[in-house]
Amino acid sequence: MTAAFSDMDAVRTLLAEQPSVHETAVAAAAARNGQLTKPPGALGRLEDIAIWYAGWRGVERPTVERPQIIVFAGNHGVAAQGVSAFPAEVTAQMVANFQHGGAAINQLAKTFGAKLDVHALSLEVPTADFTQDAAMSEVEVIEALSVGWSAVDAEADVLVVGEMGIGNTTSAAALAMALLGGAAGDWAGRGTGVDDAGLEIKTRVVNEGVTLHAGHGDGLEMLRRLGGRELAGMAGAIMRARHLRIPVLLDGFICTAAALTLEKTRAGALDHCTASHLSAESAHGRLLDALGKTPLMALDLRLGEGSGAALSLGVLKGAVACLSGMATFAEAGVSDA
Ligand SMILES: Cc1cc2ncn([C@H]3O[C@H](COP(=O)(O)O)[C@@H](O)[C@H]3O)c2cc1C
Ligand SMILES: O=C(O)c1cccnc1
């Protein structure tokens, strides 16, 4: 479908008009949860996540049958400064790997029964080096947001967004610093595994980019200035999911930084999102704290591609199966407390 916006203000308007959770379904699912054959609260966070999911799907007893994973790929001008342990060609090479089924995300998508779509966004045209200029023009960021918006399958019942883009932990760190404050050293981590010299370059690059761009606009404007096409693709897909009431599982540091740009443009823009995991990228925990989101798992993943969120599809499916499939005390003839 064609995107619902052609400029940044139209995106802001869409964010202002987004639907809210279905309160009646939340209340019904919570009431049902309270009657299920288990001690109250015994399923821990599975109970919260199932009720959250029911609320966004608008039904008391939902199912998870059509998960969609979308991986967006983009290249970054700052990669030329030596901020990654890998060369920029790896982005396109990994896109080919996704297409041939050889990446981690392919295996996880298959394992959890998810449809996997890959969108390579103008890989031959890296974004501008954000220490010199805005990473993207308005036309470019709108194009990437539109690809994300249009990539969401309206029939999906849960969405995972992931990314591939050498240099994008630098972009994510710059976005976090510009939107949340702190020092570059608080946000720059090792990404693909940069050594101490690489981390020093990365910290300087983040600092220079934020010094040039911070304070010149809201979350969306920072996405344009410091982000990348794959981050904008993820942001566009997260927005579309909200309009379709499709719950989203956020992945690691980069995905969360992309999501942050929406929250900083419109508070509440991520209410339909749950944090799937805590990445080993050092600043992810700080980023999640700022968003008030507690991750479901901590497995020391530092991959991206949507991998942690894909794994948490298993947790979500388990949670929803219990809410919708368990017997109540009355149905099972089990004595209540
Ligand atoms: C083979 C390979 C596969 C990957 N899959 C995800 N990433 C991850 O690493 C990159 C971010 O780290 P940095 O900012 O240090 O470049 C992103 O592409 C991210 O998706 C990969 C990286 C590599 C090398
Ligand atoms: O948490 C992530 O998203 C991440 C961390 C390191 C490298 N790539 C992705």
Automatic annotation (TrEMBL):
Associated pathway: Nucleoside biosynthesis; alpha-ribazole biosynthesis; alpha-ribazole from 5,6-dimethylbenzimidazole: step 1/2
Superkingdom: Bacteria
InterPro entries attached to this UniProt entry: Nict_dMeBzImd_PRibTrfase, Nict_dMeBzImd_PRibTrfase_bact, Nict_dMeBzImd_PRibTrfase_N, Nict_dMeBzImd_PRibTrfase_sf
Any Gene Ontology biological process: cobalamin biosynthetic process
Catalyzed reaction equations: 5,6-dimethylbenzimidazole + nicotinate beta-D-ribonucleotide = alpha-ribazole 5'-phosphate + nicotinate + H(+)
MF-aspect GO terms: nicotinate-nucleotide-dimethylbenzimidazole phosphoribosyltransferase activity
Enzyme class: transferase
Keywords on record: Cobalamin biosynthesis, Glycosyltransferase, Transferase
Enzyme Commission code(s) on record: 2.4.2.21
One Pfam family linked to the record: DBI_PRT
Active site as annotated: 305
Record carries keyword Oxidoreductase: no
PANTHER family: NICOTINATE-NUCLEOTIDE--DIMETHYLBENZIMIDAZOLE PHOSPHORIBOSYLTRANSFERASE
Family: Belongs to the CobT family.
Stated role: Catalyzes the synthesis of alpha-ribazole-5'-phosphate from nicotinate mononucleotide (NAMN) and 5,6-dimethylbenzimidazole (DMB).
Classification via NCBIfam families: cobT_DBIPRT (TIGR03160), PRK00105.1 (NF000996)
Protein name per its UniProtKB record: Nicotinate-nucleotide--dimethylbenzimidazole phosphoribosyltransferase
Species in which this protein is naturally found: Roseobacter cerasinus
